[in-house]
Specification:
single chain; alpha+beta; Immunoglobulin-like; Deoxyribonuclease I, Chain A; Phosphatidylinositol 3-kinase, Chain A; 6-stranded mixed β-sheet; globular; cytoplasmic vesicle; hydrolase; Endo/exonu/phosph_ase_sf
Length: 692
């Protein structure tokens, strides 16, 4: 690293750049907002969350949504469901009959002393968020948007993730998020990553601008966050619950720990928990899980918030509702919303402009950086690393900074790099810390064939010069991300080669394997130990195990037979491998052939004639394994449509479609993707049924 100071005169003075001058004026206006703002209290904001475990809509929801002790009707209802529909069809079709059933049930259980209108209902597979407002409040709403982000299985299936609705209530921007994060006690870090993914990937599009979660005045985050109670015996947990020692028990709560360490939900708050853990119960009872797994009770279902002028009235669970293995949770808030006094706003603005006129004639922005070369060492596929960049204002005026695009780029940094925050405002003498995080996966690095990564960030000071920061890293070899045509010629593990970019690696031997040995090891493990496993390829594995599997396949010749892994971890590793291929199993030029085909049989003939040998072998090999898995359907409850959908999803080039839909209509993107998926999925199902 190195130290640098930006003290040279700017290329263009601030007064010649009205855009930058206006940006600083807006920031100064924001700081003096209290001088021209009047607060309006909205008496009650009701937030509720419930993981309903796919159960039919049979419960009376009045005890949850309008209990008798709540005499005052809420102004806003925000209701989140997880596992709303666990049927297999929910992965295939966009419609769900249960959605309409829940909406009807919600509407009938809202507070009877007010009339409500549905603002928005947004659903991602089985995660649903519904927002209602009172008739008298609706006229104060504007800029309503909704969005969703999937985090389960690379964000393609949406079995985990988040859905969100935002709007402006008078002059206050409010965002509501309902999320379902990764399960399992040992997957705390994966839950943290799910939070980071939702927090950084979810953007609302409004009038050709993108609005992030962090840009809202008030944020409510609800859902089955799935953080567990750990490092304590299950029977001790139950005894503490029986005695009501919740405060002591929270010392073992993963979310509380992670928030104290500032790993997740930075700046969020949570009310005091005075109710029993909401998971896991025997459905229909108040008894803890009596199944063979006997899961430890936990506060999986939570409601958090961030922002000023928010006061929590209550935070509670509803034990009377016994429909699911979770108990519903609700919280009621009073929030203050802003209304601008226009005459005072005008006077403050005139004062700010006068101050800017004085300062920009006397001073120029000056900052120092703790380093201008950021280096990440020994990066590996699926890994992430973080470093901090510190900017200090050493000048005599406040500084507005922003990372800006390079002339030929659509975004200011490459996909493998995350910069948070990407812009900010630094007062005189203060420091600003920026987190730089490198994440290596198929979405961030589609071509994993180089030994290094590199990017240059352009840090722009409003009214000052640009500053260049080099971000680079060294990469360790992995079978993830290598093309099939290269892998089938590699007899040694990838990690035993000095470099992935060396030419000899492609000419290691004149012989070639029918399929990559890594694929064989994965499929063989599943064949030997997973034929009777339900929900194969539909449940997340353990992130820590997946990385161990990666290292074993990269660095040893023995494969997985000598180790014991969770079967879902191996299954997910197989999907990650298929997703990581630079050229998918079904290459891009096959898409048009699929669309031109008039039947599944003609699609089959096209594939036999056009697919490269390595790709054809892999496709047949995976289908052969799935045929065998389906032959055990009496035990594993497998469904040919679900398996066909999952495999064709990872055999198609998802990344190509993701990039495409950025530039064309979303509806055209959906149509094209569904057409191609229909042909390839039908083709997969056709092949599988031939042998059943």
């Amino acid at each position: 690293s190195s130290s640098a100071s930006i003290t040279d005169p700017p290329i263009f003075h601030t007064k010649h750049r009205p855009g930058s001058r206006e940006a600083i004026a807006q920031l100064l206006m924001k700081e003096r907002e209290a001088e021209y703002t009047r607060l309006h209290n909205y008496r009650l904001i009701f937030c509720g969350t419930w993981n309903v475990n796919g159960q039919p809509v049979a419960a009376d929801l009045n005890e949850w949504l309008s209990p008798q002790k709540d005499d005052d009707p809420p102004d806003v209802y925000v209701l989140g469901l997880q596992e709303m529909d666990l049927s297999k069809n929910v992965y295939i079709f966009t419609e769900s009959a249960k959605e309409d059933e829940w909406l009807f049930k919600f509407q009938s259980a809202l507070h009877k002393k007010a009339h409500y209108k549905l603002v928005r209902c947004v659903r991602l597979v089985a995660i649903m968020l519904v927002v209602y407002v009172r008739d008298s409040v609706e006229r104060h709403l504007r800029d309503i948007c909704f969005e969703s982000v999937g985090t389960g299985f690379f964000g393609t299936m949406g079995n985990k993730g988040g859905v969100a609705v935002r709007f402006k209530l008078r002059e206050t921007s409010v965002c509501f998020i309902n999320s379902h994060l990764a399960a399992h006690t040992e997957e705390c870090e994966r839950r943290n990553q799910d939070f980071r993914d939702i927090n950084t990937r979810l953007f609302f599009r409004l009038k050709n601008q993108f609005i992030s979660i962090s840009e809202h005045d008030i944020v409510f985050w609800i859902g089955d966050l799935n953080y567990r109670i750990s490092d304590i015996d299950t029977e001790d947990v139950k005894r503490m619950c029986s005695s009501g020692a919740y405060e002591d028990l929270l010392n073992f709560d993963q979310l509380s720990r992670e928030m104290i360490l500032k790993k997740v939900f930075f700046d969020f708050k949570e009310g005091a928990i005075t109710f029993p853990p909401t998971f896991k119960y025997d459905p229909g009872t108040d008894e803890w899980d009596s199944s063979e797994k006997a899961r430890t009770p936990a506060w999986c279902d939570r409601i958090l918030w961030r922002g000023d002028n928010v006061r929590q009235i209550c935070y509670r669970s509803h034990m009377q509702l016994k429909l699911s293995d979770h108990k519903p949770v609700s919280s009621v808030f009073i929030i203050g919303t802003k209304e601008f006094k226009r005459e005072m706003e005008k006077q403050v603005r005139e004062s700010v402009i006068k101050l800017l006129d004085q300062e920009e004639n006397e001073f120029l922005p000056q900052v120092s950086l703790n380093m201008t070369d950021v280096y990440f060492k020994n990066l590996k596929y699926l890994d992430s690393q973080q470093q901090s960049l510190t900017i200090e204002n050493i000048g005599q005026v406040p500084v507005k900074f922003k990372f800006i695009n390079k002339p030929s780029d659509a975004y200011f940094c490459k996909p493998w790099l995350q910069v948070q925050p990407s812009e900010g405002f630094i007062h005189i003498g203060e420091k600003f810390i920026i987190q730089l995080e490198v994440q290596i996966n198929s979405k961030s690095v589609p071509d994993w064939s180089s030994d290094k990564i590199e990017d240059i960030l352009v840090l722009h000071l409003e009214g000052g010069k640009d500053f260049f920061i080099t971000v680079s890293g060294s990469c360790l070899p992995s079978f993830f991300g290598l093309p099939l045509t290269k892998l089938v010629h590699m007899l040694k593990p990838v990690g035993l080669n000095k470099s992935r970019s060396e030419e000899p690696i492609t000419k290691e031997t004149d012989k070639s394997l029918g399929v990559p040995k890594e694929l064989w090891f994965l499929v063989d493990y599943l064949y030997q130990r997973g034929m009777d496993q339900e929900n194969l390829f539909q449940m997340l594995g353990l992130e820590s195990e997946i990385k161990v599997i990666r290292d074993v396949l990269d660095e040893t010749i023995t494969g997985l037979s000598a180790s014991t892994f969770h079967i879902h971890s191996v299954a997910e590793t197989l999907l990650i491998f298929l997703d990581s291929l630079p050229t998918p199993v079904i290459p891009n030029n096959f898409y048009q052939e699929c669309l031109n085909a008039t039947s599944v049989q003609s699609c089959l003939r096209v594939s036999e004639a056009t697919l490269p040998v390595a790709h054809k072998n892999v496709f047949r090999y995976v289908c052969a394994f799935l045929r065998e898995y389906l032959s055990h359907s009496d035990k594993n409850k497998s469904d040919v449509r679900i398996l066909g959908l999952f495999i064709c999803t990872f055999c198609l080039c998802i990344r190509w479609f993701v990039y495409l839909h950025i530039y064309i209509s979303f509806f055209i993107f959906i149509l094209v993707y569904q057409l191609v998926s229909l042909f390839v999925c039908s083709y997969v199902c056709f092949l599988l049924k031939l042998y059943i």
